[in-house]
Amino acid sequence: MSTANTGMSQAGAMAPETVAGEPGWRSLPLLVVLRGGPSGLARVWQIPGRVRPEKVTIAYYGQHQHFVRTTETKTTEGQSLPVFRWSYSTKIAE
């Protein structure tokens, strides 16, 4: 789900070693702020997963964009959101 007004997007994100959509997956939405990575990537994402993931992986144009949690938070629309910094990208295996 992408919202043009807020720049907020729903990620094809996954917690480490857990793939969203697999049987037994239970999503718990979490808003996060992303720093770095591709310029077209929204800066605020809604991700499924653990309440406090240390890493976030987002599928974006045939690649996985990997982000790691920082100690920073950013207040957006009255909410204190965790900030994740871009680390590296990998190609999605077919």
Question: Explain this structure to me?
Answer:
0% of the residues lie in helices and 53% in strands. Mean pLDDT is 77; it is low at 1-8 and 12-22. It has strands at residues 2-3, 8-10, 13-14, 30-35, 44-47, 55-60, 63-76, 79-91. It has an eight-stranded mixed beta sheet, with no helix packed on it. The protein has one domain. The two termini are 24 Å apart. It has 94 residues and is an all-beta fold.
Mean pLDDT: 77
Termini Cα gap: 24 Å
Please report which band the strand proportion falls in: under 5%, 5-15%, 15-25%, 25-35%, 35-45% or over 45%: over 45%
Q: Please tell me how large the radius of gyration is.
A: 13 Å
Order of helices and strands: EEEEEEEE
Q: What's the total number of strands?
A: 8
Strand order of the largest sheet: 1-2-5-4-8-7-6-3
Helix residue percentage: under 10%
The total of helices stands at: 0
What is the total number of structural domains? 1
Specify the structural class: mainly beta
* Shape, per Cα inertia axes: globular
